[in-house]
Specification:
Elements: H1 2-13, E1 16-20, E2 29-32, E3 45-50, E4 53-61, E5 78-81, H2 87-99, H3 106-111, E6 129-132, H4 134-138, H5 145-156, E7 160-161, H6 162-167, H7 172-180, E8 184-186, H8 202-213, E9 220-225, H9 231-244, E10 248-252, H10 259-270, E11 274-277, H11 283-295, E12 300-303, E13 315-321, H12 338-349, E14 353-357, H13 362-369, E15 374-378, E16 389-394, H14 406-417, E17 421-425, E18 434-437, E19 454-456, E20 461-463, E21 470-472, E22 485-488, H15 492-502, E23 508-511, H16 519-530, E24 536-539, E25 552-557, H17 561-564, H18 571-583, E26 593-598, H19 604-611, H20 614-628, E27 635-643, H21 646-659, E28 666-678, E29 681-690, H22 693-709, E30 716-722
């Protein structure tokens, strides 16, 4: 009895902590701190029992008062990492999961690299760069000639790369034994002398001066510069003195494919090795960057959206390049927008942030017009060359295959003969978007989605680009057995085939997800195009943005009308961004030309795009959005549901709509999604809108718990999307 009484007394005195765990429940979990752990703090990484499992979690509230009896609480199993998540980053993670109406445990997934989400210690791969320790420098190896030889090599030049030492005959066993003996140690990749950049023009100087004036305080800059205006040089000039002082600069890029050229340039100009962070890296590579960022060793950090959540010890500036790009939006899990999260983080860190784009998002233009961001404009190219001349090609009544009219072929041939490159943009991969029977009207549709199957000629298959379903290409109509099947429309594969027949002398490079599936493939293509040899590049969104290929003299957009009449209210904005981005690839080293194909040459928006610049077009679209009560004038969130039976998803959303009938937000729906059926699931959505963002957030932040209490059917999937990009 005395033993039991003492245990209860100890339990009364023990600390209670509230922990976030990676489980799909909208709550934290209470645990006692055992005697073996002195105390726990917010941001600690801990191992805790959860049912029959052990999970890695993050302490969020270190001095919690639990509503449960203390004898009902389990104890923390182990402290894995003290203060693993700094306070500033923990606050950002909490804001992210709350704002985007996600389970709070998702902050574990956002805040920790995969290697730290498991209870087993992760062993980093062998270090690539090595240097002598103090013991290694002072030791004499008169009886160990191999160790002595390595010591001399590292005294002569240090650090040295492992691969270089192995090539010189040093054995892996020797390196391993000297590491274990504490004679050599891992080192960071050495810095190289920073290269002097080009002289800035007056607009660039003004932009750099404005940014450097706000060092050590928060200001959000929208750097709106036409393609080829030198936005990257502005980033680098502003970042250079910060990096030289040992501070950190975080560069966010929209896609992995854009990193190669940018990383090389940043390293050369800043004289520091760039630490890279994105989902395509190995777990060891991601952990190494995470740890280098947390320690402050990494001064230059470059990554995609997930790099937003790197721990930063001496952060001085954040750059978001191509800030309009939809790749900054996460489309599963926590549906956050890294651009908006970066602004929140810069505010919390009290440092400047630069959002750069030739075609800023309407939300960013609105923020600049309302004074939340400071607008910096670069209106001319650094080469002093004019922007490409725009030309409309009216394709009404034209029946040319793949949209390649005789006039267009002649333009392409002229540019190839002049030793230039030509870019042809077609935002459809595959050979044809539809296969149909001329006799009975049968169409090749996906059995699992509300979509046609795309024909892929080279692989002789029909593919669904939504669910991944694949079937062999039929030789006859499956319905009436007629042999006359017609491929309607065109994708990049068909454009490539047609150009190969019409201009056989021109090398062709196709860039789409079918052709380029690995990172190194895209890097080789970038290097090939950068060489400037005459060729025709056919591609999708992968070639539309962020690349500097000075050899391109002509850029073409085939069939631009799809976005013009899109059911998505963002369609015109995306069309404008695509046209300005694609046109901007041309004319960087010599006068360029841009051809826009359309069957709507008299459409008011097409005419506006032809006659004015992007910012003017964006403000025209903002006026249209305001008149229609659409974002960014109003705040928007969506509740989406999908189920095997359409009635289940509809009934689920109807219950939510009824529960919100008396709230401060306007509820519309249930409405079918644009792609109503995908991978066998019927998809519906509710629109939640409000003129007050605070009112909308008050509703969305309560919804996850409210829905969980309502016990949705087990075979139904749902999520909340705040500030959605796909509607």
């Amino acid at each position: 009895m005395l033993f039991q009484a003492r245990t209860l007394t100890e339990m009364m005195d023990s600390q209670t902590v509230r922990v976030a765990l990676p489980v799909p429940l909208p709550r934290l979990f209470d645990y006692l701190v055992p005697e073996s752990i002195d105390a726990l703090s917010a941001g600690d990484r801990v191992l805790v029992p959860f049912g029959s499992r052990e999970l890695v979690g993050i302490v969020v509230q270190p001095d919690a008062r639990s509503s449960l009896p203390r004898d009902a609480l389990k104890s923390v199993g182990a402290l894995l990492g003290p203060n693993e998540i700094p306070d500033e980053l923990l606050n950002l993670l909490l804001w992210t999961v709350r704002y985007y109406a996600s389970p709070i445990g998702e902050l574990v997934t956002l805040g920790l690299p995969p290697a730290l989400r498991r209870k087993q210690p992760f062993k980093l791969p062998a270090a690539e760069w090595l240097q002598l320790t103090e013991q290694g420098r002072e030791s004499t190896f008169s009886r160990a000639p191999k160790r002595q030889s390595l010591q001399q090599a590292l005294v002569a030049r240090s650090p040295r790369s492992r691969s270089e030492l192995l090539d010189e005959g040093v054995s892996a066993h020797l390196l391993r034994s000297m590491l274990q003996a504490g004679l050599i140690e891992p080192a960071d990749r050495p810095a190289s002398p920073a290269r002097t950049g080009p002289e800035l023009n007056e607009e660039q100087k003004s932009a750099v001066d404005a940014i450097t004036e706000s060092i050590n305080r928060f200001t959000a800059y929208l750097l709106a510069g036409v393609t080829g205006s030198g936005k990257t040089e502005v980033y680098l000039q502003a970042a250079r003195p910060l990096v030289q002082r040992g501070q950190q600069v975080l560069f966010l890029l929209p896609e992995i494919g854009l990193t190669t050229q940018t990383v090389r340039r940043i390293e050369q100009r800043l004289g520091q090795p760039a630490w890279i962070y994105h989902s395509d890296l190995s777990e060891g590579e991601r952990l190494a960057t995470w740890q280098a960022a947390r320690s402050g060793r990494a001064r230059v950090l470059i990554g995609t959206r997930s790099a937003l959540f790197l721990p930063l010890k001496t952060a001085a500036m954040i750059v978001v390049d191509e800030e309009h790009d939809s790749s900054y939006k996460q489309f599963d899990g926590v549906r956050y927008n890294a651009r908006d999260g970066a602004v929140m983080r810069a505010r919390a860190l009290d440092i400047p942030i630069v959002l750069g784009s030739a075609t800023p998002a309407l939300e960013s233009v609105a923020n600049a017009d309302q004074g939340r961001y400071r607008l910096l404009e670069l209106t001319k190219r650094v080469t002093d060359l004019a922007l490409p001349q725009w030309r409309l090609e009216d394709t009404r009544g034209d029946h040319s295959e793949a949209g390649l009219t005789p006039a267009l072929i002649e333009r392409i041939r002229d540019r190839i003969d002049a030793g230039e490159q030509v870019l042809v943009y077609r935002n459809r991969r595959g050979y044809a978007p539809i296969l149909m029977c001329n006799e009975c009207g049968w169409q090749a549709d996906c059995n699992h989605c509300s979509a046609h199957l795309t024909m892929h000629h080279s692989s002789r298959t029909l593919r669904c680009h939504h669910c991944g379903y694949v079937q062999a290409l039929p030789s006859r109509c499956p319905s009436c057995h007629a042999p006359d099947l017609h491929a309607g429309g065109s994708g990049t594969e068909r454009v490539e085939e047609r150009l190969a027949r019409l201009i056989p002398e021109a090398p062709l490079i196709r860039v789409d997800r079918d052709q380029v599936q690995q990172r190194d493939q895209f890097e080789k293509i970038i290097d090939q195009l950068s060489a400037g040899q005459p060729c025709i590049i056919i591609g999708t969104q992968m070639i539309a943005k962020g690349h500097h290929w000075p050899g391109i003299g002509l850029a073409i957009v085939l069939d631009a009308d799809q976005s013009l009449f899109s059911a998505d209210f963002r369609g015109p904005e995306r069309l404008a961004q695509t046209l300005y981005q694609v046109s901007g690839r041309a004319g960087r080293a010599r006068p360029g030309e841009f051809v826009l194909q359309t069957r709507q040459p008299d459409h008011p928006f097409i005419q506006r795009l032809m006659e004015t610049d992007y910012l003017s077009s964006a403000r025209w679209l903002l006026d249209e959005r305001a008149a229609a009560g659409l974002p960014p004038v109003t705040a928007l969130a969506m509740v989406r549901a999908e189920a095997r039976q359409a009635t289940q998803a509809q009934a689920f959303l109807k219950r939510i709509a009824a529960d919100l009938a008396t709230s401060q937000v306007q509820v519309s729906g249930p409405l079918p999604a644009l792609l109503q059926r995908r991978a066998g699931y019927w998809r519906y959505q509710l629109w939640l809108t409000s003129a007050s963002r605070a009112d909308l957030m008050a509703v969305t932040q309560r919804l996850p718990e409210h829905i969980s209490q309502g016990k949705a059917p087990s075979n139904l999937r749902w999520h909340i999307d705040v500030d959605p990009l796909e509607v």
